[in-house]
Specification:
The chain is mostly beta strands. 1% of the residues lie in helices and 49% in strands. The protein is built from one helix and 49 strands. The strands form twelve sheets. Strands 41, 42, 43, 44, 45, 46, 47, 48 and 49 form a nine-stranded antiparallel sheet that branches. It has a five-stranded antiparallel sheet with strand order 1-8-7-6-5, with no helix packed on it. A five-stranded antiparallel sheet has the order 2-4-31-30-29, with no helix packed on it.
Length: 642
């Protein structure tokens, strides 16, 4: 590897301007009050897209990444002010405006040597530093650059902010990149071996040096495996287990989609496909893999194009962890051209922004169109049609599931950076519910839990409200906030004997959508025997086995315990035993139930549900000993107003 000297030139204000574009036609519109998934996000630069001219030279955006604060980093290539192409880097605020704190007015142009340099991929480290991958010296060397948060080159990276590496003596091209959790940089690309082009993967340490522990040399290729054909890598992805997937194409009679998988140490994974390689012909004509992503369960998703009926149609295919094709589809087949923009939602849904047309689509994991996406419920979002030459090269999903795509657009003979954003999630979470609260409780602490389902950006927090009704009351207190925007899914509440305590929740997803409040879940904590008045003959018992340590026992028929209350559901807390008698339960003069306390073994603290009503009942509840000479032992009673 050679250390190189580079010059950095920041683009001046005079050559940073917004292109005056032809009017944008949105082919699917929403009402003023309804926002749908796939609609252009008007909060982004006021219209859902922005274009940046880098002077009079042609500029092409090739990749996009998100910073932790939501800023959008776009990388590409420009020919501004020089016969040689240069690396162009721009950072946009979440509002769609260029970030004035980055470079000069949001743009950095990096000149590498005296020859053409091109940027193909960008990744953002957890600390916000930006890694750019491409090629330099007229595609003779793979190029890796690292920038600080303000757009200056990071001189701690390989001693000057840049590194270059060549496998062969001539063509070396870095086309994609991914960061490992340990900070190492994996670069996918291809090189000329003297006879033909082959796929290659190279790994650099976090400091920019070549990682020679990777396959013993820092790189690996597919020269021997794919033979004398031309093989090109266009995308790279990292599996959860650390394995590396390269996607691209190889040239037989036609171009065919090709996947290669490497182990984390750089060796070919021979358990994948055939000897680590999988080749497939989709559509019967030319086809290429342009993007690849790996879901958390290990499924590999490839986006690209396949030629069918004379058209290059967007094509997507899924592979198992072993490299077998599980599904493939050209879901629309209307000359959507390619699948350069590809990203996976948390739920496994596939989002793509094929071009031309720049209309995002969303597919279920089984590759069927998502009928909840788009204003026409056909899986297709707003089309950004500028009536000019436009294309997309990459897409990424924000945490809130908004879809950001970058590419280039031509107006009046000049190409500039194009950045567009669509709404990816406007549907609130569903199935919000509270659990873990029994109708009747003997515990000193209530521990409700809750959950909700969100198929889009995912549930991020909950609003929790509570209310209560003390014994003897027919109404609840007003709902009050217990927690707001909490990520927790459980809570500890001090139980109050005789009180009905209720919880309800609503869920918020990453896009900010709120569900409605769940149905309330209410628990009534039982009253002890002290709250009951008595008539007839009763004996007070004490002991840790009884609820609240006390109980009342009677062997005299007609003896009663009573209280005045309001309830919808009623339960008696009693001891059951082999020789126990029975109870009659009255509301006023109305008999609600007769309950036997006989059981094969002695059990204290038994919650016996007596009665349930759809409306609130009020009056004197009376528990009457019903069995002469057979004892009944009462430990408490519970009234649930919910």
């Amino acid at each position: 590897m050679r250390h190189m000297r580079i010059g950095v030139r920041l683009i001046s204000a005079a050559v940073t301007a917004m292109l005056l574009l032809a009017p944008v036609v949105v082919t699917r519109s929403a009402s003023a009050t309804t926002r749908y998934q796939g609609e252009l996000d008007s909060a982004f630069n006021g219209k859902g897209w922005t274009a940046t001219a880098l002077g009079t030279g042609k500029s092409f955006a090739t990749d996009v990444a998100l910073e932790p604060n939501g800023s959008i980093v776009v990388v590409g290539t420009t020919g501004i002010g020089s016969a040689a192409t240069q690396v162009a880097l721009a950072r946009y605020l979440p509002t769609g405006k260029l970030d004035p704190s980055f470079g000069t007015h949001g743009v950095v142009i990096t000149t590498v040597g005296l020859h053409n340099s091109e940027a193909a991929a960008v990744a953002v480290q957890p600390n916000g530093k930006i890694v750019v991958v491409g090629s330099t010296n007229n595609q003779q060397d793979i190029l890796v650059l690292r920038y600080n948060l303000n757009g200056t080159l990071d001189t701690s990276f390989n001693g000057g902010g840049a590194t270059e590496f060549g496998i062969g003596a001539t063509i070396n091209e870095g086309t994609s990149a991914v960061l490992q959790p340990n900070g190492k940089i994996v670069v996918g690309g291809d090189f000329f071996n003297g006879l033909n082009d082959d796929m290659a993967v190279v790994r650099f340490n976090a400091n920019g040096s070549l990682d020679t522990s990777f396959n013993g040399s820092g790189f690996n290729t597919t020269t021997a495996e794919l033979g004398s054909y031309l093989d090109y890598a266009r995308a790279v992805a990292l599996q959860p287990d650390g394995k590396i997937v390269l996607a691209g194409f190889t040239t037989y009679a036609n171009r065919d989609t090709t996947l290669v998988r490497f182990n984390s140490n750089g060796s070919l994974d021979t358990g994948f496909g055939t000897g680590g390689i999988r080749d497939d012909d989709f559509g019967g004509g030319d086809d290429e893999a342009l993007k690849v992503a790996v879901s958390p369960n290990g499924q590999i998703v490839v986006g690209g194009y396949a030629t069918a009926g004379g058209f290059n149609d967007f094509n997507v295919a899924t592979y198992s962890a072993q490299g077998a094709v599980t599904r493939d589809a050209m879901p629309y087949g209307t000359d959507l051209s390619d699948g350069n923009g590809l990203a996976l939602q948390r739920n496994g849904a596939i989002v793509a922004v094929p071009g031309p047309g720049l209309a995002p689509i969303r597919l279920h994991p089984d590759l069927s169109p998502d009928a909840e996406f788009g204003s026409n419920l056909d899986g297709v979002g707003d089309e950004l049609d500028s009536k000019t030459d436009a294309g997309v090269e990459a897409a990424v999903l924000q945490k809130d599931a908004k879809i950001v795509a970058v590419g280039s657009i031509e107006v009046n003979g000049t190409f500039g950076f194009l950045v567009a954003r669509w709404l990816g999630d406007t549907i609130p979470p569903t199935h919000a519910l509270v659990s873990g609260l029994p109708s009747f409780s003997l515990a000193s602490t209530l521990r409700p839990t809750w959950s909700a389902v969100d198929a889009g950006s995912g549930v991020t927090s909950y609003d929790v409200q509570s209310r209560s009704a003390p014994h003897g009351s027919s109404t609840y207190t007003a709902w009050s906030a217990t927690s707001t925007q909490t990520p927790k899914t459980t809570l500890s509440i001090k139980a109050v004997p005789g009180t009905t305590q209720c919880i309800r929740i609503r869920a918020r997803d990453a896009a900010g959508n709120l569900s409605g409040f769940s149905a309330p879940r209410c628990a009534a904590t039982a009253l002890g025997e002290r709250a009951l008045m008595s008539t007839g003959t009763w004996t007070k018992l004490a002991g840790p086995s009884y609820y609240l340590g006390l109980a009342m026992s009677s062997s005299v028929a007609g003896s009663a315990l009573l209280t005045t209350t309001h309830f919808r559901r009623l339960a008696v807390i009693a001891t059951t035993c082999p020789g126990c008698g029975s109870l009659r339960i009255f509301l006023g003069s109305k008999l609600l139930d007769t309950v036997s306390l006989a059981a094969p073994m002695v059990h204290h603290r038994q919650v016996i549900q007596i009665y349930a009503s759809s409306s609130t009942l009020s009056g004197i509840v009376k528990l009457v000993q019903n069995s002469s000479k057979k004892a009944v032992t009462i430990e408490g009673v519970a009234f649930n107003l919910g």
